[in-house]
Write a structure and sequence with these properties.
mainly beta; Gluconolactonase; Methylamine Dehydrogenase, Chain H; N2O_reductase_N; 4-stranded antiparallel sheet; about 0% helix; WD40/YVTN_repeat-like_dom_sf
Amino acid sequence: MPAHPEGFHYDAATGRLYVNVPDHRQIDVLDRKTGQRVAAWSPPEMRSNFPMALDAAAERVAIGYRNPARLTELSTADGAVTGSIPTCGDTDDIFFDAVRSRYYVSRGEGAVDVIDRTPEGLVHHDRIRTVSGARTSLFVPELDRLFVAARAGWFGGDATILVFRPTP
């Protein structure tokens, strides 16, 4: 890697690994078999790419940029931007819900953005309040739940896991 990697996802069907490399303002695409980089994508004017989500079935990878604050979808075939929508500057995690064709974007300022992928493009569906600093999250499709970690000191003491059940 040319610099410190951040978010990454592996597509088992293609054998490709998608890796955010924010210090180089790019997404590296690696071939698992050869270990070689096969592509490097750098959407113009986008910086601080940290979280990432993969929708292998739709051949899309979503990148959370902090500057400008956007969720941007790229084609896994060639890195072309297929959609983009504003979000917050403290995006930490992104997950794709294949059942609902939706992204969950956890925001350090105390919210989760719910963004739907529609035939017309990416659409802001909802913003769910959490607490400031609760940015680490995990979506578990098998449980149909989004878990968001709130650090100690919130809610009067110990660290807490907030549990959200997506709705249609």
